[in-house]
Amino acid sequence: MTTTYTSAAIATYDSHIDAEAAVKTLTAAGFAPGTLSVVGKGYHTEEKVMGFYNAGDRIKIWGKQGAVWGGLWGALLGGLLVTAPAIGPVVIVGYLGAVAVTAIESAVVVGGVSAIGAAIYSIGIPKDSVLRYETAVKADGFLVMVHGDAAEVERARALLARSARSVDVHNDLSVPADAASAA
């Protein structure tokens, strides 16, 4: 069973380096890894990813950028690799990864969004925002999310605003009726 949080800050980043730095900033400021999520599909390189496997709570990725995702996978307590239509392979680590597994297992489907969008929507993020976040990931961006109460999320927003392309705060989150009925 996953914890339900009442607020979330969602920051968008243009690079995995910036997203990873944001996670380090948040954990250094005392945010528990279990309250953080990172979503991203990676980046284009000449070197191709050769494979993925999960060994315990750590992901092993063969490829040029494996250390980034492997480190985040372990630090943020597990995750999920999904292939989303029109987006491609996407890695979701942290709290949202657990929510995504539940959404997929429950066959939560929200019209016009991928499994990633369904996971974000299922924690109470409005659909118009979900579509914006999917677009950012599709454009090779990264999302860094902080889940918690309103005060924690506001503190996270202030930290994320220093480096993110954009930061949104969503308060009074509740599971949408169509997502709740599928669970």
TrEMBL record:
Residues 10-80 form the General stress protein 17M-like domain. Keywords: Membrane, Transmembrane, Transmembrane helix. InterPro entries: GSP17M-like_dom (IPR025889), Low_temp-induced_all0457 (IPR052948). The chain crosses the membrane at residues 67-87, 93-123. Pfam families: YflT. The keyword Transmembrane helix applies. It comes from the Bacteria. This is Permease. It comes from Devosia riboflavina.
